[in-house]
Specification:
- The chain has about 375 residues and is mainly alpha-helical.
- The strands form 3 sheets. A 3-stranded antiparallel β-sheet has the order 1-2-3, with helices on one face. A 3-stranded antiparallel β-sheet has the order 6-7-8. It has a two-stranded antiparallel sheet with strand order 4-5.
- Helix 11 runs antiparallel to helix 12.
- The chain is elongated and about 95 Å long.
- The relative contact order is 0.07.
- Keywords: DNA integration, DNA recombination, DNA-binding.
- This is Integrase.
- InterPro entries: CB (IPR044068), DNA_brk_join_enz (IPR011010), Integrase-like_cat_sf (IPR013762), Integrase_catalytic (IPR002104), Integrase_recombinase_N (IPR010998), Tyrosine_recombinase_XerCD (IPR050090).
């Protein structure tokens, strides 16, 4: 039987009592809303399908994120990046809402708002995946069985993050003793020459030789590198399984020549340090390339506007990321190993994912045709 009480000038409290069911209480702004809610609860109890909404209605999204960070995120290897996402979400107005009050339309607005702020679609998808898992854990493990997952009701941002960037080479002009000197260099050599980090050139060369991820290179232990057998063991990888990586003679030599560190690692650089050093070297290399190219084009008699246009469309040392070295390495290794062996080297769980990293040049395929 439902009992309604007026509380104050404009609120109604309703209580629903049924034998065998816990007492349900809620406050509304109008009597009609209170009666509608009470009728719904009574019908669910009579049908034996009632599930309490109290936990979901009293738990804020911010509190749920806090609990998730403590119970779930803290146990993940990628906890640092996910904790950063959680802290960002906790500053959003949506964090003040109860879990039960959040609807698909709210998250659709959140999605559109984040995209309008300039976030990449892939980043927004990761945020939505995190929110979705918070709701799933709340429903399965936090006594919120009545909770629905609003992320399942909205469209995900479309992502086209496939890259086919290969290492380029070009004529590089430098001024030596008042004379322009030309060398044909690839981007890796330019980055190594302009690196401010003494260790980066070895890391870049090692990445292209092995196809290892940035975090795998940074975490590689000397004890896990067998230079006689020319193999490196990676006990923990991105997909959670271990794998062995064959080392070329160049890769083995790089490990052998690295100074020994107290912590047992081969390289002292951390993943974020590698990225920063790579971007700094890339920027310096591009500036040096543009300066030399400008001098060369002017010596050829081109006008300033023509020089600027030629430099602007030149792709050398532009739109290059450290992770592209893994694409380059995979494409090179594919010329040596069949795909089923290559998946074991790169750590891809299936050939479909591997193909995202394999980018043969059309001219190289044409040579195989004869």
């Amino acid at each position: 039987m439902a009992t309604l009480r007026k509380r104050g000038p404009s609120q109604w409290q309703v209580q629903v009592r049924r034998k065998g069911w816990p007492l349900q209480t809620k406050t509304f702004n109008t009597q009609a809303e209170a009666k509608t809610w009470a009728t719904m609860i009574e019908r669910e109890m009579d049908a034996g399908v009632f599930v309490s909404r109290n936990e979901a209605e009293s738990t804020s999204f911010s509190k749920a994120l806090e609990t998730y960070a403590r119970e779930v995120t803290s146990k993940k290897r990628s906890s640092a990046s996910e904790l950063s996402r959680i802290q960002t979400m906790q500053r959003h107005p949506l964090a003040l809402r109860s879990l039960a009050s959040i609807r698909g339309a709210d998250l659709a607005n959140y999605r559109d708002e984040r995209l309008a702020e300039g976030l990449a679609p892939a980043t927004v998808r990761r945020e939505l995946a995190l929110i979705s898992h918070v709701f799933t854990i709340a429903r399965k493990e936090w006594r919120m069985e009545s909770l629905s997952n609003p992320v399942e009701l909205i469209r995900q941002p479309s992502v086209d993050d496939a890259r086919d960037r290969r290492i380029l080479s070009a004529d590089v002009w430098t001024l030596e003793n008042d004379e322009l000197v030309c060398e044909h260099l690839d981007e890796l050599e330019m980055i190594c020459r302009h690196s401010r980090s003494a260790e980066l050139p070895q890391i870049v060369r090692f990445a292209v030789e092995t196809g290892m991820r940035r975090s795998e290179i940074s975490g590689l232990l000397r004890a896990n590198a067998d230079l006689k057998k020319r193999t490196a063991l990676l006990p923990i990888t991105k997909n959670g399984s271990s794998r062995g990586v064959p080392l070329s003679s160049r890769a083995a030599a790089i490990i052998e020549n690295q100074p020994k560190l107290e912590d047992g690692r081969v390289f002292k650089s951390q993943p974020d340090t590698i990225t920063k050093a790579f971007l700094d070297a890339l920027n310096d290399a591009r500036n040096a390339y543009e300066e030399g190219l400008e001098l060369h084009l002017k010596s050829e008699g081109l006008k300033p506007g023509q020089v600027a246009d030629r430099i602007a469309i030149d792709p050398f040392l532009l739109d290059l990321r450290f992770h592209d070295l893994r694409h380059e390495a995979t494409s090179r290794l594919a010329e040596i190993f069949p795909l089923h062996e290559l998946t074991k080297i790169t750590g891809h769980q299936d050939t479909r994912m591997l193909m995202r990293y394999y980018h043969p040049r059309a001219e190289d395929l044409a040579k195989k045709l004869g």
